[in-house]
């Protein structure tokens, strides 16, 4: 059964990769093939209707043209370029170490935060913006211009980006354990969060758009000939200002509006259960990110199907809440559909630098279910060591101490670390509010 499932996943991934490459990365080439097919069909018709006049010459020319156009394309459909994807690009490490917020973000209190035990990971976040976000309703208006501009830019590097996409698919299929590599419609942000801006633009994007933008900036292609010869570096597309002067503008991360990235939204939430437990998961080795690291109870990305419409626009926070609760249910009930009462609030926002400054939101959830009923989904969560991931939080003071302890623990993923930090800051600022929301007394009675 495992072999057939793996084979089916490989076929499905191949079909989706080819469909994306055809529609997005090399659409003009397929127009040429379409015209060739048309003239080939015309030649067939003419040759069949009047063979004696020499119309068969059109048929022969059509065959030659079809082979010339279609053969390389068909070879691409079933082949993977002889190249390897390598992470740990030293240039990206140097670049990430120098990144600063944009002028607009700096004005809103954004600063670089270095993630403990992850020397190569930094994020941009702001306590000031998080406080504003927790108390403000935000609408999002769909605008496809960012996606159109991004796709036009992608076609200028189509060959290399397609090779990177195919290598990523091969890497996922051959990994042990094998990881799924499927496309899907995602919710993307065209604008970043800014204080006093209660309306932002959003766009529908595909996961593969993110692979060749946000995920590609930390990767490079090298030839697979025994010599580590670089063929393509995604770091050239990193959304950061490199102008040598003035120095005050150098190494600033571009705002989402001009980043050129897919910027699909990531979401994470920490769940406190009815029996007053904080439950975490250990991310599966099959995951594409944060493999074998501690992760929030619900963590992933915001799907376009999570969108909550409101008067012709999108209710951004309701959309994020729906995505957080969906991820929690998908990861916490053994992969089975389950109905569980949840109450979720959005806590904060950050940008994940190594992933092209992609936008991420974190939250907190109170779940009307006892912790022993939560069963990790084996497709997304490691099953071992479950007992070390359930933390007693009889009161808010115990939860607050637990957050501090986990922040210093090795093996914590980037989203979890930010989630822990932001919830701790929120509790410090308004303990009574979060005591009521999470159903935890400020302190347990003596």
Structural write-up:
This protein is an alpha+beta fold. Helices cover 40% and strands 19% of the residues. It has helices at residues 2-25, 27-49, 56-78, 90-98, 103-107, 127-134, 145-154, 158-174, 207-211, 316-332, 396-407, 414-429, 431-438; strands spanning 83-86, 111-114, 122-125, 139-142, 185-189, 199-206, 220-223, 230-233, 266-272, 277-279, 281-282, 294-295, 298-301, 309-310, 313-315, 342-352, 358-367, 390-392. Strands 2, 3, 9, 10, 13, 16, 17 and 18 form an 8-stranded mixed sheet that branches. The protein has a 5-stranded mixed sheet with strand order 5-6-4-15-14. β7 and β8 (230-233) form a beta hairpin. The chain starts with a helix and ends in an 8-residue tail after the last helix. The relative contact order is 0.12.
Overall structural class, as computed from helix and strand content, comes to: alpha+beta
Our estimate of the beta-strand percent is 15-25%
Low-confidence stretches: none
Distance between the termini: 56 Å
Question: What is the mean predicted local confidence, pLDDT?
Answer: 84
How many beta-strand elements? 18
Report the total helices.
Answer: 13
Helix percent band: 25-40%
Rg computed from alpha carbons, rounded to a whole number of angstroms: 25 Å
The global form is: globular
Q: Biggest β-sheet, characterized?
A: 8 strands, mixed
């Amino acid at each position: 059964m495992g072999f057939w499932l793996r084979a089916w996943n490989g076929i499905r991934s191949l079909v989706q990769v080819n469909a994306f490459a055809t529609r997005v990365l090399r659409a003009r080439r397929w127009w040429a093939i379409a015209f060739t097919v048309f003239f080939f069909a015309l030649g067939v018709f003419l040759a069949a209707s009047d063979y004696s006049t020499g119309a068969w010459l059109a048929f022969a020319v059509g065959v030659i043209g079809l082979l010339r156009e279609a053969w390389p394309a068909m070879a691409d459909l079933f082949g993977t370029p002889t190249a390897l994807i390598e992470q740990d690009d030293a240039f990206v490490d140097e670049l990430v170490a120098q990144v600063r917020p944009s002028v607009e973000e700096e004005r809103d209190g954004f600063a670089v935060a270095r993630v403990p035990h992850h020397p190569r990971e930094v994020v941009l976040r702001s306590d000031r913006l998080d406080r504003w976000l927790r108390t403000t309703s935000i609408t999002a208006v769909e605008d496809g211009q960012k996606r159109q501009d991004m796709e036009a830019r992608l076609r200028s590097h189509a060959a290399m980006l397609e090779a990177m996409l195919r290598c990523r698919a091969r890497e996922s299929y051959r990994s042990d354990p094998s990881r799924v590599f499927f496309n899907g419609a995602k919710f993307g942000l065209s604008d970043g969060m800014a204080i006093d801006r209660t309306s932002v633009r959003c766009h529908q994007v595909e996961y593969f758009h993110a692979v060749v933008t946000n995920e590609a900036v930390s990767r490079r292609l090298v030839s697979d000939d025994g010599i580590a010869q670089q063929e393509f570096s995604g770091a050239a597309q990193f959304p950061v200002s490199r102008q040598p002067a003035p120095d005050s503008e150098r190494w600033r991360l571009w705002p989402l509006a001009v980043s050129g990235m897919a910027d699909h939204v990531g979401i994470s939430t920490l769940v406190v259960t009815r029996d007053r437990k904080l439950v975490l998961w250990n991310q599966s080795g099959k995951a594409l990110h944060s493999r074998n690291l501690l992760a929030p109870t619900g963590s992933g990305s915001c799907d376009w199907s999570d969108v909550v419409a409101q008067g012709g626009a999108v209710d951004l926070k309701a959309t994020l809440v729906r995505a957080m609760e969906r991820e929690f249910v998908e990861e916490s009930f053994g992969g089975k559909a389950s109905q569980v009462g949840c109450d979720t609030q959005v806590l904060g926002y950050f940008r994940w630098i190594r992933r092209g400054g992609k936008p991420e939101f974190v939250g907190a959830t109170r779940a009307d279910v006892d912790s022993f009923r939560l069963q990790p989904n084996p497709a997304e969560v490691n099953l071992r060591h479950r007992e070390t991931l359930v933390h007693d939080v009889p009161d808010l003071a115990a939860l607050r101490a637990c957050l501090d302890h986990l922040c210093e623990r090795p093996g914590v993923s980037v989203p979890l670390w930010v989630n822990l930090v932001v919830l701790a800051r929120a509790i410090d600022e308004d303990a009574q509010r979060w005591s009521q929301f999470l159903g935890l007394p400020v302190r347990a009675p003596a």
